[in-house]
Predict the structure of PLP-dependent aminotransferase family protein.
Amino acid sequence: MTRYQHLANLLAERIEQGLYRSGERLPSVRTLSQEHGVSISTIQQAYRLLENLQLITPLPRSGYFVSPRKAQPPVPAMTRPVQRPVEVSQWDEVMTLLDTRGDKNVVPFGSGSPDLDQPGLKPLWREISRVAQHQPEAVMSYDMLTGRQELREQIARLMLDGGAVVSPDEIVVTSGCHGALAIALLSVCKAGDIVAVESPSYHGTMQMLRGFDIKAIEIPTDSQTGISIEALEMALEQWPIKGVILVPNCNNPLGFIMPDSRKRQILSLAQRHDIVIFEDDIYGELAAAYPRPSTIKSYDVDGRVLLCSSITKSVAPGMRVGWIAPGRYYDRVVHMKYAASSFGVPATQMAVASFIRDGHYHRHVRRMRQIYQQNMETYTCLVRQYFPCGICMTRPQGGFLLWLELPEDVDMVSVSKQLRLQNIQIAPGSLFSASGKYRNCLRINCALPPNERNRNALKQIGEAVQGAMEHFAIVRGT
Amino acid sequence: MTRYQHLANLLAERIEQGLYRSGERLPSVRTLSQEHGVSISTIQQAYRLLENLQLITPLPRSGYFVSPRKAQPPVPAMTRPVQRPVEVSQWDEVMTLLDTRGDKNVVPFGSGSPDLDQPGLKPLWREISRVAQHQPEAVMSYDMLTGRQELREQIARLMLDGGAVVSPDEIVVTSGCHGALAIALLSVCKAGDIVAVESPSYHGTMQMLRGFDIKAIEIPTDSQTGISIEALEMALEQWPIKGVILVPNCNNPLGFIMPDSRKRQILSLAQRHDIVIFEDDIYGELAAAYPRPSTIKSYDVDGRVLLCSSITKSVAPGMRVGWIAPGRYYDRVVHMKYAASSFGVPATQMAVASFIRDGHYHRHVRRMRQIYQQNMETYTCLVRQYFPCGICMTRPQGGFLLWLELPEDVDMVSVSKQLRLQNIQIAPGSLFSASGKYRNCLRINCALPPNERNRNALKQIGEAVQGAMEHFAIVRGT
């Protein structure tokens, strides 16, 4: 640690401890220089760092002041989506989001990609390299239809962590969790069917419904406890709903973990109405708390839960290794796997199996849980600093996604277009509604390390939001 | 070449040239030994080799005789499937076929896997190893939705060889040709739709129709010129058919290449009736003739041909690299790719792109074309020797699949069960019909090198067929 960083730390601690209060003037550069026996420029560097961290604010010709600490914004209230089945729209907006993928000039706050710049991934790509060299025949050949045995064994072990006892022979390997959900939906539903979803809900899943001509009914969802069981029950009494798609652990985009009691309640509701639960556990391994939360599958007694997951968020998307434990739908899922996607890539399956077996997986996930948790705290602070008042924000219990709710008037779809010109990509909330609700919301990917570039981008987002709010204030004449 | 192999060659040539006629007695071992100045055992080895090659037959205590040459069996006649849309059945039989995959004890004559024990594949697995080591970030990341640019560029080049001018931006990378066809079908058809297919037709495609609840109408098909355009036209006049799935080049399972004039005819028929053509070109690169045959896509003027292909048969299935050129259906196909299968595996895409770009692909395919052509000739000879009379057999113009038609009575489904106990897997013809026709047919994978083990297996198949025929002769009392 350099001298100025050391000094900045010291000052930050004093601010944290309340020795310097919000709005208070800090000692002058000259005073500090004499007090600590360091050069003027060292003090200036330290102050600049604290300024970047938004802890202090310079006032021209008056010196530095402790930045005002905003109160923690409230969490979003229970959502109130349209209470009837609708066809999913918003494809063009999703395409816009996907189009910037891979463009290094763009800050991808709207993406759902995990942090891949991590040493913990080294054993994985080394293993790919190794299997290609040492088992070329297996790498070149057709896979087994249900996926490689050694991988299914490791997946069964992971499922145990979530409380589900599933044998490797009851698991079907798929192309990511997305492929798992697609096969699950195609196996159970037909065109014209209705499926219930949390609201807001992951846009990829909803575009899937659109693709398969399945209608979505969006159910009110609480940002801390999940889908409203009462509202789902009402919908089940009113409509011929085939199943419900849930992300009960580290929900995308709201970040909640459904309490276990509610998981059991929703399962018994599903039993009473004889519907299927499509459980998406893709973020489940990234829960802040240890041990990881249980899956709904772990309470499933009659095989009506199709548990879908992957290593996309916990490890890396490029492996395309996902899975389904389809319960009583096993035979249909195997046939649909053959029909819709056929075989998988042996190389990545082999590498992932070794990665889990040799302990690298758990080590990596443990570390990433911490990193994402820290990132989310940092971004939460930064949002408080950069964004105007009057917003609501989730308190995620895992994963790496933050959800912000801005005042009703703010249209994040147009803000996102404006930000795109500044090479910043965001995911406006409307992507997460079948009917284009939540235009005043946005999801932020906190897997992006909070470095200077990304902090600046967040600041620009905050400014754009501020601009949009001022615009509306003028329009309304307030 | 060892001495006995040299001698065997010499004798084989003499038989070929008619110096020793069919049924004629060959010189004794002693005579030849003296004539060529080699040991008795060398002559015995040479004769044993010729015996294995079924060119000569030993008669106890009488010496060796030139095996009788059977006449080339006729090709199968135009097929006559049921002329109405049916739901595809036969899934259990397909599963039986898939179940043996990867079992080293089983001789997989029923599979469609190419020969993977080839030095030409070395640059490919080396490249996988290299990209994992040198571009780990790209390997770990989400792919582009339509597939990697450098791969699409190479695919566009390959399409040119088949006469189709398609830009890289009009191509969507998929998980093999199977994934391509699945996305193509899901993009164009709905449950309940009717699609026309060649008869016989690849079982994977038909199980796809079953999975998506699409009915198949099987159209009479000639084993040398392809689908009957007249019969297709009649069907189009009678039923609301959405499209037709064709494997016009090196058809699976019949091996024909549709003449160009017929390709144009079928396209203009499709235009008149406004239907879609799903063109499966997966074996097209393995045509015996050079340059490779044209695709129907190459004549397509209004974008109604969805050209699907992959490197599965020409290179290796384990890469899962396939593609669609969807013409006017591009937007729908991109959405359906997102809905049904989402992103691909970057590692194999990157490796395959380099493999093609650096010339390894064309070198490998050139060599495999020759090998498969030789194999098919050898297996054709062997079938003539091992199988009873009264069979019909295709004359494939490429690929590596032979199709045999046995007398009506022979039930290859039960023969296949019997052979399974002998660790031999075959594909009974009924898999290739939506309605379970062609029980008296079988498809043979000639990518299996005709070594002793595989020859013996073929011999056992021949004997089992012989046994089935005799059984029926007894039952019928003839």
